[in-house]
Amino acid sequence: MTVTPFAGFLVGLLVGLTGVGGGALMTPLLIFLFGVAPQTAVGTDLLFAFITKSVGGWIYGRHGAIDWRVFRRLALGSVPSSAVTLLWLHTFRLDAANEHWVLQTLGIMLALTSVAMLFKARLHHLGQRVRTETPIQFKAVQPALTVVTGVLIGCLVTLTSVGAGALGAAALLYLYPYRLTPAKLVGTDIAHATALTLVAGLGHVTLGHLDVALLGALLAGSIPGVMLGARLSTRIDARYLRGAIAAILMLVGGRMWLQG
């Protein structure tokens, strides 16, 4: 278990630098490296992501790098969506018998996360173009589209623990192409993911999907990692790092799909 705090540190560092990695990297690590059951990996990772991202969100908030209006719009969709998804999971009790389903869904989400990371710049440019060419129409639908985005992310993150960072950031780049600076994009994304993973994580705890000892070991490394990453984010260009993460996620997603 000595490698566990180190794994937590690496993931925390990446979360602080890029806003991505809480679920997309940690859940596969828990399943493949530590042999954790998929549903337990999802539940443990959601609480891991909540605590890790809350530290990063606090640092970004201190620097005024969170857009609270955008945060509220996302949370208005994601938090109720997460609650409904948890109710569905509780009703149908998708546990060990559904391990293959969980792995396949995780594989799909990792692939989507990879694509979102790779094409984030194109989405940003598309959002800028649409915002410039049809400003009135764009502004009119912007709040509703943000809430709908929150609904989708809330459901997917609750099922898999993956997507709050990369999918959320990609959507925000399109929906708010001029409003959010790079720092505010990451800060707002992390703040929303913190709220969402708290709700989803506590719901999974009630379903028995938590390994307390593993969570503690991961947090021992992740908290200093995310603090360091958040401080370095203004000094380091994370574009190449995101590209490497995207490639890894695509490979891991394919492996999960095949294994499922």
UniProtKB/TrEMBL annotation:
Segments crossing the lipid bilayer: 29-50, 70-89, 101-123, 144-176, 207-228, 240-258
Pfam family, one: TauE
Localization (cell): Cell membrane; Membrane
Signal sequence region: none
Protein topology in the membrane: Multi-pass membrane protein
Keyword line: Cell membrane, Membrane, Transmembrane, Transmembrane helix
A cellular component term, taken from the record's GO annotations: plasma membrane
InterPro entries associated with the record: TM_pro_TauE-like (IPR002781), TSUP/Inactive_protease-like (IPR051598)
Similarity comment: family membership: Belongs to the 4-toluene sulfonate uptake permease (TSUP) (TC 2.A.102) family.
Name this polypeptide is given: Probable membrane transporter protein
Lineage: Bacteria, Pseudomonadati, Pseudomonadota, Betaproteobacteria, Burkholderiales
